[in-house]
Amino acid sequence: MPTAGSGCYGARVRARPLVWLSLFGLLSPRGAEAAELTLTSKSVYHAYQLRLNPLTDNPAQRNLNRIYTTLDVGGWAIGDGGDVDAVLSLRYDTDFGTGFHRDTPLGAGIPAVDGRDDLDLMYLYVDWRNVVRGTLDLRAGRQLILDDLTWYSLDGVKLSGHLWRSGEDGLEVEIYAGLPVRIDLLFSSDPFLLDGTELDDGSGVFGGVAFGGNVALSVLSGLSASLAYRQELEFRQDTLVNLNRNVDSAASASAGLTGLVESRIGGSLGYTIRPVAVDLYAHGTYDLLLENLEQARAGATWHPSRDLHVQGEYLRSRPRFAGDSIFNWFNIFPYDRGRVEVSLQIFEDLTIDAGYLAQYFGGGEKGPLNSTTAGNQGAVFDGSSWSHGPSAGVVYRRPNFGFGGNFEAATNTSGSYAFGGNYRVFSLFGDLSFMEGRFGADGRLFVTTTQNDWFEGADDGQVDQPRTSFIAQLGGRGQFTDFLSGRLLFAKNFDSVLEGSYRIYSELTVRY
After folding, report:
1. What is 211-237 written as a DSSP string?
2. Are 35 and 76 in contact (CB under 8 A)?
3. Do the Cβ atoms of 236 and 202 come closer than 8 Å?
4. How many CA atoms lie within 13 Å of 84's alpha carbon, on the beta-carbon side?
5. Does 455 lie in the same domain as 435?
6. Which residues are CB-neighbours of 453 under 8 A, at least 6 positions away?
């Protein structure tokens, strides 16, 4: 995984030609003739603490004191036809907190972070609509790909074709290609890293290449379907040795000088049955490299009136890593989750909701948690694989204020300890606004009780001692002028097990 010092002052600092070409297009004289120019600057200070050993009496904590500033600039309807937009987004990030480094000796104190200055280029692209009138659009530069394979950051070109349109129905096709965004370059951006990406990966001239596309179809004024594919290759200067002892095709494809980082396909299907007010949906992604179902989701919602909403959903999820990650060869396993939720508006200002959740965690063979016998390949959980529990909430809402509460719990089914442990969460909240909504305040109180599932004695049928934490949170917001707004939040933890002792968040936004 990348270290804290893998920002813009790394050993290999270089910029990509496509980025600078996009910047030239944004700052060209033609861009000065934009019909509209927008500028947004946001400055955030975020400080909090994390307990490093939450289930022991060790008081060691890591402090995070982050300051980051974003600058977003947009030029809209540029040119004679108004068919060109240009977008730029920069982020500066620094942290004055503490954190262990890769070379921190065991037993040493917690040092300060070693990467305090990071300048990221989040977006920099030009949109040219109607390259072919009414049929083809073009986007070039650093951009965000949104499809059935989730978000993906790319330095490249995307073509969008509008092949057919009739009312609500239509057929859309997108294809793209470019360079994957890395973390060790000048103006890098790392919001979508896959686990297992090393600091030295992709140290060649271009680092790698990515390409893909998606198709979206809407017919019958209610039926929609989409399909997406993406592949990413990595070009290395040094050969990556395969760590998997039982070499298979997936491991071989991700090793060597040219490695396959990801090869995935995903799709969605949805249908609205208007006469009975039912929406059906399904979505899935499949890892072609590892030949595993990565995620599957299916559900239905029923909303016969504006006062009643019912939803049921099934989810299967498996952890995802980069193709060359050693975690692909460990005993990782998926979980299955089912939930049912009902929301009812009693009258105009009062809404109640209730639900039930059940989860099943797949895994390896059962065995003693603390066994050191010769045949044991590692600690495995010997409790129940099922966890389930209810949830409920009530909200009273008026134009200038509101308040309510929520409750959620999870336990087991068979009397043995549930995987993930037992927990109970209760919260109260309230908010108000004044001066026509320009200013507001809110507060929350959380009470959380947990019982750990992975502790010495669990295999003997013992039950962990419940641990209760309290969190009080206060916040405020203000729209001081048409272009200046701010937000402040403070949270204090009492007897916290899972987190630290406080959290501060402040935000100042300027829009032109």
Report:
1. EEEEEEEEETTTEEEEEEEEEEEEEEE
2. yes
3. yes
4. 17
5. yes
6. 381, 383, 417, 418, 419, 420, 421, 422, 464
CA–CA separation, 409 and 421 (whole Å) = 11
| pLDDT, averaged across the chain | 80
Strand partners for 439? 434, 478
Q: Is 327 in the same domain as 442?
A: no
Measured distance CA(62)–CA(111) in Å, rounded? 9
Pairwise CA distance, residues 405 & 28, whole Å? 54
Is there a domain that residue 126 lies in? Answer: no
300 and 159 in one domain? yes
Its pTM stands at: 0.80
Residue 183 sits in the same domain as residue 258: yes
Determine the pLDDT at residue 215: 97
What tens digit of pLDDT does each residue of 82-120 get? 889 999 999 888 888 877 766 677 667 777 776 677 888
Domain membership flag for residue 129: no
Q: Give the rounded percent of residues in the chain with a pLDDT score beyond 90.
A: 44
**Domain check: are 484 and 470 in the same one?**
no
First-residue to last-residue Cα distance in the chain: 39
389 and 511 both lie in a single domain: no
pLDDT-derived band at 452, boundaries 50, 70, 90: confident
Domain count, the chain: 3
The 10s digit of each residue's pLDDT in 242-278 is 655 555 667 777 777 888 888 999 999 999 998 999 9
pLDDT at residue 398 above 50?
Answer: yes
Structural domain boundaries enclosing 36: 1-82+90-119+480-512
